[in-house]
Specification:
The complex is a heterodimer of chains A (about 425) and B (about 140).
Chain A lengths: L1 H21 L10 H10 L19 H11 L12 H4 L44 H10 L8 H10 L1 H11 L16 H9 L2 H22 L8 H11 L10 H10 L19 E2 L15 H10 L17 H4 L11 E2 L21 H10 L17 H11 L21
Antiparallel strand pairs in A: 1-2
Helix pairs in contact in A: 2-10, 3-7, 3-9, 5-9, 6-7, 6-9, 11-15, 14-15
Chain B lengths: L11 H20 L6 E4 L5 E6 L10 E8 L10 E8 L4 E2 L5 E5 L5 E6 L6 E10 L2 E10 L1
Antiparallel strand pairs in B: 1-2, 2-3, 3-7, 4-5, 4-8, 6-7, 8-9
């Protein structure tokens, strides 16, 4: 008899826990004024015009974007002529690649981030080691696992190609004489020795062509803007009528939105119309398999300060007073292990996730934040959320409303025609 | 608007007086100090008035604050050393930036450059002001 009672109690408890876990959080019938303000702040309608980049005088030049467009898709910008920027930043995948780790000439250490809307960010790379999009664009060209190219080879390529040289000179003026084929201060030994054989003027001229190519690539990337999603239409519609019900979002998606802006605390970092604060946070992500834990922004800001192409460098078009982010960047210990908040625009189409592609699915990402595990390095800023499994599914349903085709002229989304 | 409505046409002298007083009011309104966004007071009488150059203060925008430091007698102090740090106590992290006083403005205020808040929520800013060999620590807590 006792056995039957005991079993019944256990079954009843298990049933209660299961029901509690699976019980959907109700969708709000009406948004209050502070919820409406938060929802409005996330809408693409609240996205300001793209800020200027004082360090890049041609950031908004159409001619520079045309040149950057051609360079972006050109596999000749690699050692084996098999890697272009578009190898990893694939237009059909929101300029990401759906791989855990980027694969250029070989497998790299980091996951490819989407480029969509990235021009709004003051910092680039997961650890923020570049302070402009043009300076960022230079590094993969010389990274051995990416293009494995070098700045001198790039300058020679532009000089020898009539279309590239014509487009380059139309934007930046005459190309200099490039006396050797291959040289760089940061790549392999032979190229470094060749670089040392150049005089400072020659080095400067090559650096100038190199940085100008980066500026053209940045001008092109500024075209890659996110498109309006179902969420944006909903966010705008409810401003006029605070009733939360709408055909634009399902009950589960609206419940997920309510969690996103409140209990789940996603909006703490994924804020603003791009759903990113473009800043750096330690959220207890495991290190990439086979790698030591990344120091993240702690090292990144130091590298940005030392970067030969940063905002304060001779290759920047900005006055020192305009380099606000670099001048006032923080570099304290709490940035150990901190990585950049990615946009959630198109997040359902840009798996896997995190700086090393460590987490395969959105459901697993949400579970990670619900658990908020102890960080391997420094501390996890996030705290356990205590969300039920039904709430996690609602949150995921909301995240899946954030995907839409780009608001970019389709001609920028594939390789340019040669006759252009 | 009804207050400005005239029932009879004003004489030329009245018109002149209107213009004169109008100009005076305009002058006062442009020279008057706008209210500080925040004001902090230390028990020793030192006060720090904070004027944000970004109104309203909002997340994800780099901006500057102007600081006015006055002593217990209400006199502006223009040779103070000011260090500002800030963070979110609930998240165990600081500001994303390292704000610094970079100079004085003609109105006697200190220019604090490099302020950017990157998260909504409770922020705590700490001001260390050394003036007349006295160190005053003041705190500003607010929600964004």
């Amino acid at each position: 008899m006792n056995k039957i009672v005991f079993t019944s109690i256990i079954v009843a408890l298990l049933a209660a826990v299961s029901i509690w876990q699976l019980w959907w959080a109700p969708a709000p019938a009406q948004w209050n004024s502070s919820q409406l303000a938060l929802i409005r702040s996330l809408s693409l309608s609240a996205l300001p015009p793209l800020p200027s980049d004082p360090s890049n005088a041609v950031a908004d030049s159409e001619a520079a974007a045309e040149l950057g467009h051609q360079l972006f898709f050109d596999t000749r910008l690699s050692d084996k002529s098999n890697v272009s920027c578009a190898t990893c930043h694939q237009p059909e995948n929101y300029f990401a690649d759906n791989l855990p780790l980027a694969v250029g000439e070989s497998v790299g250490p980091r996951h490819t981030p989407s480029l969509v809307g990235l021009s709004y960010s003051p910092w680039f790379y997961w650890d923020g080691r570049k302070d402009s999009q043009w300076a960022q664009a230079l590094a993969p060209l010389e990274a051995s696992h990416e293009h494995n190219f070098d700045r001198t080879r790039l300058a020679r390529l532009i000089q020898r190609d009539p279309v590239l040289s014509s487009k380059y000179e139309a934007v930046f003026g005459p190309l200099p004489e490039i006396p050797i084929e291959s040289a760089s201060p940061v790549t392999h030994e032979a190229a470094r020795q060749a670089w040392q054989s150049l005089d400072p003027t020659q080095q400067d001229e090559i650096n100038r062509v190199f940085s100008n190519a980066g500026k053209a690539l940045a001008a092109y990337q500024r075209k890659l803007m996110p498109g309006r999603t179902r969420f944006d239409d909903y966010a705008d519609a409810v401003q006029a009528n605070s009733s939360a019900k709408s055909d634009l979002l399902s009950t589960a998606e609206r419940s997920g939105l309510a969690l996103f802006i409140d209990k789940a605390q996603c909006i703490d970092c994924h804020n603003g119309p791009l759903l990113s604060n473009h800043e750096f946070h330690n959220t207890g992500i495991l290190s990439v398999s086979g790698q030591l834990p990344s120091m993240g922004r702690f090292d990144g800001i130091r590298q940005a300060r030392d970067d030969a192409f940063n905002c304060l460098s001779p290759y920047s078009d900005a006055a020192a007073s305009q380099c606000m982010e670099l001048r006032f960047a923080r570099d304290s210990n709490d940035l150990v292990g901190a990585h950049k908040t990615p946009t959630l625009r198109n997040v359902a189409a840009t798996a896997p996730y995190m700086h090393g592609g460590q987490i395969a699915t959105l459901a697993d990402v949400l579970q990670h934040y619900n658990d908020a595990p102890v960080s391997m390095l420094s501390h996890n800023e996030a705290k356990p959320l205590g969300l039920r499994s039904a709430e996690l599914r609602q949150l995921e349903a909301f995240l899946r409303t954030l995907t839409a085709p780009l608001a970019t002229d389709p001609r920028w989304l594939s390789a340019p025609h040669l006759e252009e | 608007m009804p207050l400005l409505r005239q029932t009879t046409l004003p004489s030329p002298l009245t018109k002149l007086l209107f213009v004169f007083f109008g100009l005076m009011l305009y002058s006062l309104s442009t020279e008057a100090q706008p209210g500080a966004d925040f004001e902090l007071a230390h028990t020793n009488g030192l006060r720090v008035r904070i004027y944000s150059q970004l109104n309203p203060v909002q997340i994800n925008q780099m901006h500057s604050w102007e600081l006015e430091v006055v002593n217990a007698q209400g006199m502006q102090i223009d040779d103070a050393e000011i260090i500002v740090v800030g963070g979110m106590p609930d998240h165990d992290h600081g500001l994303p930036t390292n704000p610094q006083v970079t100079g004085m403005l003609p109105n006697g205020r200190y220019l604090l450059e490099g302020i950017r808040f990157h998260m909504p929520g409770r922020w705590l800013m700490q001001f260390s002001v050394r003036a007349d060999s006295t160190l005053s620590e003041l705190e500003l807590e607010f929600n964004l």
